Amino acid sequence: xxxxxxxxxxxGKYVAVADIHIxxxxxxxxxxxxxxxxxxxxxxxxxxxxxxxxxxxLIIVGDLxxxxxxxxxxxxxxxxxxxxxxxFKRIIIVKGNHDGFIEKLVRDKRVSVRKSFSVGKYAFTHxxxxxxxxxxxxxxxxxHLCVKFRDDVGxxxxxxxxxxxxxxxxxxxxxxxxxxxxxxELCGYFLVNKGKFNGPIAGKLKDPKMYLLDGTDIGRxxxxxxxx
Length: 228
Description:
Elements: E1 9-11, E2 14-17, H1 24-30, H2 39-53, E3 57-60, H3 73-85, E4 90-94, E5 111-114, E6 117-119, E7 122-124, E8 137-140, E9 145-150, E10 156-167, E11 175-179, E12 190-191, E13 209-212, E14 217-220
Parallel strand pairs: 2-3, 3-4, 4-5, 7-8, 8-11, 9-12
Antiparallel strand pairs: 1-2, 6-7, 9-10, 10-11, 10-13, 13-14
């Protein structure tokens, strides 16, 4: 299911990723950080995953673009360019809280925009709103999670993580929740160490488990020693 060493998963004939944030480089530039467009780099990464997993479709689990309100000039150019570069036969955009008016940027017949999307026992939604589904597993993004580690000499570093937990009181309706890491490493991270998650779905999780991108099980949030 998880693709080793990648913030991506394979479900059926689809690769799924979350939080691409096309247009982010404009905000970074305003903050004094000048970077070239990331469109080709991000598309190449996804096309490599398509080839690696022999997938036909792509699910973008919210926040394809970066601007929260409206559409920036950069997004008008880069979102269509990005979609055109992708080599998948079918592309599903699950709308996130940054994807307002995303339909206006979709000019490719392979692409469809949904509030949620299901494959087998999995339901994909961005995570900024609730979802009603009969599926056993709900996959979300929205959180951009990482864990902070501190070594013996006091140096600290952050690692992106997958988070997996359970929701529901009734044994017949317990859902497994999977929180995906952000695909675009430039969009920033929120520390799992603080024990708080964003959104009405993730916010209800109690002491979920965490996994590094290489699959290492690092235990539950309650077991983290670094708490800032």
